[in-house]
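Shipment paperwork, digital attachment
Item: protein structure file
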Amino acid sequence: MKTMPNPPHSFHIPVMGTGFTIDTPLRVARYGISSVMSLVDDVLIEKVREHYCRKLGEPFEPIAAAEEDARARRITAYLNLVDRQVHRQVRELQESAFENGDIRRYFEMLPDSPLKQSYQDMLAAADPAEKTRIQQMLRPKAVPGSIDVNIMTKLDRDAYLGGQKQAPEASDALSALRGFAGSTLRSAIVFSAGFNQRLYSYAARFADFFPDETGGFKKKIILKVSDYRSAEIQGKFLAKKGLWVSEYRVESGLNCGGHAFATQGHLLGPVLEEFKRKRRELTEILHEIYIKAHRAMGRTATDQPAEVRLTVQGGIGTALENDFLLKYYQVDGTGWGTPFLLAPEATQVDPVHLERIRTAGEGDVYLSECSPLGVPFWNLRSSGSEEARR
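Attachment content:
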């Protein structure tokens, strides 16, 4: 089966809130940096789509909340906009000058790798013809980061119209999934915050989640998990539906997106140690189930499983810690949240709140019950949401 291409960077920017990373791909994807947008709030998504259509000169036709399948259609429209714009940005970057264009920034930010070495060879080349040859080889290799999306599986309210409960497909999570499935994106959906059988079963209705004739996936599935057991249970359920999990994204139970002690204090080290020991076993078990499901559906399945990435995020504080996770636990990548939350070039935080975060003292941060997941949540007393609540 066709393997997933290795991303240019070993890190990604995780989903942060409903809005902090809502336009992050438009800011960083052209530099090969992968990031994740939340699909929770379609009202916000529609407003952001309008903003960028006006800003970029694209026609904007509003999708009213009362229209049929409005939530899914709003999500599809925004994701298609982001996809178009990132492709445009990448074309312009690939055509820019190596002396002072965006393409220089792209290669300068790469980690040590054969690709970075080729770029350095180009800089060192004394022969103009050789320099031009290497540049032409490098241009198409400046590929964008993945434009991924996130669904919090527990946030799956049923839809009502005129007091009448609508079909299950109209629920929050299922309509968000439909919005992603109908988009032009070639990327991944991150399922986070628990196991939703209805949602996972619904994913099997969309052809893009199944391998194409080359063995590749147009739409991939990433499971955000807190431990090995969760990965195995959810992975088996999806495999029985003929769905392959392309990545297990382990999130620290002590510090995940502001949530505190989401796993009753289980530390990240022992969790990753179990993944390290059982990673091959997990892939083999799931592939056996996956093959049986495909044969039962009359689909072809190869003897070799597709690649499965293992990444980790939450509470990584230093480059040394990051290096340790990559080398000792042999993870394929890491997710960095807070450093990018504080970078206006990457995320959407207004200057007022950046300053409030910068100057916050110990008494300004407290454990609240504001999370919809029923887990204690670290909150900033001076935040706009807290002021509105009070």
